[in-house]
């Protein structure tokens, strides 16, 4: 949508078609660009309250705590947790932001899931569980579903393991008054829904499930 907005500003008339009714997909907020768009549309933010306790619920029990992560009294678990974060950040340093496929171990890491990577790094079951939650919370996926290369690159883009979960000067510091989806909705209203040409960026197999008028040529459905 940002690309379409830029094209419109340069005199073109692009239209963005979303696969779902909700525009914008998962609008991430750990970036300055999204904040600039929010300011442009007059959408305000507010700081998240970090004065009260958070709750870590596991095995049917609630454990209140303060800070970004639940406390760990076992020194081996604490060392394991620290090693996991440091290892992920160190691996992320090898991945170029603009071309992650050029990382020295790109092919190896891309063939590995995050679950496989966690199982190699983590020493304790508690840290392995927290690592799995990390993936669940940040990208709404299971560790066995995503590439290690992609997730390490994603964490690097967010500023590293500590920043993405930190409140002050971190990924959890602010929220949008009225919700982040407003930004995409403003952009959708601005772009409109009529265009002369269409670029269909879907796999050819899915094109068979769409209705076109006039019909696509055979080359467009094979």
From TrEMBL:
Q: Membrane as a keyword?
A: yes
| PANTHER family given in the database record | AMINE OXIDASE, AMINE OXIDASE [FLAVIN-CONTAINING] A
| Class in the EC hierarchy, top level | oxidoreductase
User: What's the protein called, per UniProt?
Assistant: Amine oxidase
Q: What Gene3D superfamilies does the record tag this protein with? A: 3.90.660.10
* GO CC annotation terms, alphabetical: mitochondrial outer membrane
Q: Which InterPro entries match?
A: Amino_oxidase (IPR002937), FAD/NAD-bd_sf (IPR036188), Flavin_amine_oxidase (IPR001613), Flavin_MAO (IPR050703)
The UniProt keyword set, sorted, is:
FAD, Flavoprotein, Membrane, Mitochondrion, Mitochondrion outer membrane, Oxidoreductase, Transmembrane, Transmembrane helix
Q: Which family does it belong to?
A: Belongs to the flavin monoamine oxidase family.
Q: Which residues form the Amine oxidase domain?
A: 1-31, 32-192
> What SUPFAM superfamilies does the database record attribute to this sequence?
FAD/NAD(P)-binding domain (SSF51905)
**GO function term, MF aspect, one:** primary methylamine oxidase activity
Q: Which Pfam families match?
A: Amino_oxidase (PF01593)
| Cofactor(s) required for function per UniProt | FAD
